[in-house]
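Quick illustration, no need to memorize.
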Amino acid sequence: MTKPSNQRASPAGPAGRRSRKRRPGTPLAWSLSIVAHVLLLAFAFLVTWSVVDASEDDVESRILAPPPPRTFEPVSTLRPTEPIRPAPTLPARRPTESRPETVQVAEVADLIFAADDLLLDGTDLAGGEGDASLPGIDFGGVGAPAARRIVFVVDASGSMIGAYPAVIDQVERTLRRLVPRQSFSVVLFRAGGAEPLPTGGRLRAATTPAIDEAADWMRDLRPEGRSDPAAALRKAFAVDPEVVYLVSTDITGAGVYEIDGDALIELLDELNPADDDGRRKTVIRCIQLLDEDRLGTLRKIARMHGGDAQESGFAFIGREALGLDR
């Protein structure tokens, strides 16, 4: 009975011998496999560690490194990378709204004179020559009929140096008695010519500002040169006056500056002709200053152009009356 069991435990033949030869190699193979895996894991760990360490150093260097300083360049240094092409020019269009124009001093003066003209044109409808509603005119004691248009022709030659301030004061007093419905102008004759009040060839309404301007203008001028009233009379009659006051020391002059008295009278006949009835459109009043005129020219003019046989239309004002002999 024992014999058969021994036969099953140890099989006979070549197959049994091969099985016994493989068993001793199995532990060696496992050992080599384990060692290989350990080395592989070690190599993988080493590579992973070195990569992580390098990335941490790089991050740390980026965090710790100071940022570069900021620089700001002026806008003027910037240059376009490409040349800018000019925009196409569009045709000019007419502005829809008119631009305000600069008002010149001369234009303002024209507006003032135009207002004067409207004021005076309105009074023309209210009454005619010698209108009783207007104040009468008096200069140096010589009266004139109530009139709307008055011109003073004043000698401002060198011979008037002493009397000129008193004459200007008298002209101003006469002007201030006028009313705005009346108009006036002043023409000075000096240095052989005429110098009219700068009114653009118009009469000024007798308002306070206009009279102030006229008085200042007369005082700013000084008497000079010789006396020649011809040009001044032409300018005076150019504004169609109703009354003219002619004021002078020696209307015809003296010596080399003397003018022909008859020629002056002929000029006035041309400027202020008489109608068929012997009446003249303009009344001329004459004032002789300082010394009597040996030729009596002003007295003759006043008689011919006075308009009233009962009034001489002439006055003489000597040095004493002007306050020059005190």
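The chain has ten helices and nine strands.
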